[in-house]
Amino acid sequence: MKLSTRSRFGLRFLLELGLNYVKRKPVYLREISQREEISEKYLSQLALLLKSAGLISSIRGVHGGYILNKEPREIRLLEIIQTLEGDLSLVPCVNDSTYCQRVAICATREVWLKMGKAFKEALGSLTLQDLMAIQEGKLQGNVYYQI
């Protein structure tokens, strides 16, 4: 499985918002675009998806920008990736048993089920707060992995 640019850039977008969450200060797309080297236009498309999922809010005006709707510790990476990618099934027959007539006798489907479950469990066990801690460790020169 390969995650799209939407997920990779979307996580970086939310990470920026998370790092500013303590200040309760909205962040301009332009600032994130420059820091993360992501097109502002592309970020605005991601913002629409994330806003419609209730993960972020936009604030208009001079002191406007984007903010998280929830505490970073309450936002699971699984929720973010599912918002940006949609269905995370490795193959269509995992969620739709009518997709293939061989579902009942297919041994490989069990592999795809097991892999998908492990992938979702890994993403479900991590929060935006965890990602923020990893980022802060990297910025301080510490290597910090907890997966």
Can you offer a commentary on this structure?
A hairpin with a 5-residue loop joins strand 1 and strand 2. With 147 residues, the protein is mainly alpha-helical. It has helices spanning 5-19, 29-36, 40-52, 77-85, 107-124, 128-139; strands spanning 56-59, 65-68. Helices cover 51% and strands 5% of the residues. It is built from six helices and two strands, in the order αααββααα. The protein has one domain (5-139): Winged helix-like DNA-binding domain superfamily/Winged helix DNA-binding domain (Arc Repressor Mutant, subunit A). Helix 1 (5-19) crosses helix 3.
Instruction: From the 3D structure, determine the CATH topology.
Output: Arc Repressor Mutant, subunit A
What is the rounded distance between the termini? 18 Å
Number of strands: 2
Radius of gyration: 18 Å
Structural class: mainly alpha
Overall shape: elongated
Largest sheet: 2 strands, antiparallel
CATH architecture: Orthogonal Bundle
- The portion of residues forming beta strands comes to 5-15%
In what order do the strands lie side by side in the largest sheet? 1-2
Q: How many discrete structural domains?
A: 1
Number of helices: 6
